[in-house]
Each structure stands twice: as structure tokens, then as C-alpha cells.
Design a protein that fits this description.
With 159 residues, the protein is an alpha+beta fold. 19% of the residues lie in helices and 40% in strands. It has a six-stranded antiparallel sheet, covered by helices on one side. Strands 1-2 form a two-stranded antiparallel sheet. The radius of gyration is 15 Å and the shape is globular. It starts with 5 loop residues before the first strand and ends with a strand.
């Protein structure tokens, strides 16, 4: 990988867009994590700022922009991808091993509130279990400590 800074075995935070682009295979306009605030082997807190300039709002919905639920799942999945990258690199003790974390399944999804321009999403994810090349995460999004969405995200590692 492209020399992403590590500190005490974890990715050094805050992680900004430049480092996020090195970890996730996604590129603009499909990278939805703006910043990683905190990360350990088992937990991540990331941030996504919802702006009125998001391309999706031209069609969802004109005059009443609402960020789509399916993209909330993608936001959580990308945070889990960064956490999975961090956990894999700690487990294998080889910093910056080039891997991709792929979405396999989404379970127990609940949407609790609409997301609109001006909202700042905090994405929380915790590694629940890992077996072979599969990892299960518990993830949720909050706005001002109010629950917006939650799901269990299952991913696999692709080397």
C-alpha cells in the first residue's frame, strides 16, 4: 500500500481523504467516508458530511432531498472496510498489506431517521467476529447521538 501512517499498530488518526483513498478501492464520487476520527483493532468512528451538492440529490428527491437508505448501508460498509483493513494488518503484523474488504451480506438493517443536507453522520463499527477470510461487524450511524441506521455487515478479505 502507499505508506499509510501507523501508530501503535493502528492506522494513525485522523485519517483524511488522501489516506482513505489509499485504503478503499472506491473513488469519487463513490467514496462516502470523509474522515476517520478514531480507530483501534476492533472499533472505528468515522464521519460523513451530507451536503446539498451531493450528486444523488438531483434525483432523490428534487425539492426534498433525502439521502438514500441504500447509501447509508454503503457508508457503514466503507467504514467496516477501513476497520477490516486495520484489523487484518494488525493480525498479520505486516503493515500496509494490500487487501480489499468486500461486502458479502447485510443483516438486521433498521432505518430510524431521514438524512438530509446539513447532517453530519458519525459512523460507528465494531468487529464482532472473524473466521478465515470472513469478518462480521456491528455498525450504526448517528446524528447528534440520535440513531439513524444500524446493521450487521459481513465482509470477506480479498488479497
Amino acid at each position: 500500500m502507499n505508506d499509510i501512517k501507523m501508530e501503535n499498530g493502528n492506522l494513525k488518526t485522523p485519517l483524511m481523504a488522501e489516506d482513505i483513498f489509499k485504503i478503499l478501492p472506491h473513488k469519487y464520487p463513490f467514496t462516502f467516508i470523509d474522515k476517520v476520527l478514531c480507530i483501534t483493532k476492533d472499533d472505528i468512528i468515522a464521519q460523513k458530511n451530507i451536503t446539498v451538492n451531493e450528486q444523488i440529490f438531483t434525483g432523490h428527491f428534487p425539492g426534498k432531498p433525502i439521502f438514500p437508505g441504500v447509501l447509508l448501508i454503503e457508508v457503514m460498509s466503507q467504514a467496516c472496510g477501513i476497520l477490516g483493513y486495520n484489523a487484518y494488518n494488525q493480525e498479520k503484523a505486516v503493515p500496509n498489506t494490500p487487501i480489499i474488504v468486500l461486502l458479502v451480506s447485510v443483516e438486521k438493517v433498521k432505518f430510524r431517521r431521514q438524512v438530509i443536507p446539513g447532517d453530519v453522520l458519525k459512523i460507528h463499527a465494531r468487529l464482532k467476529s472473524s473466521k478465515n477470510m470472513f469478518v462480521k461487524f456491528e455498525s450504526k450511524i448517528t446524528i447528534d447521538d440520535t440513531s439513524v441506521c444500524e446493521a450487521d455487515i459481513i465482509c470477506s478479505y480479498k488479497l
